[in-house]
Design a protein that fits this description.
64 residues, globular, mainly alpha
Length: 64
Amino acid sequence: MLELCKEILAKVSFDRYLFQKELKKAIKWIKNPSELNQLKAWCIREFGERYPTIIERTFSTAMA
């Protein structure tokens, strides 16, 4: 599931709205806390410069 989420996020990363929408879905799909942390680290590494606010806000809301 983690790899599928990464593929989807990479494909929609051209659009801010789609990226946020798919990131929210990915967080809901992934139940394993370890995989969720891996997804967060990957998002920061891959898209941290482009979408830092979206990543931080989405993960902080979901992981709270």
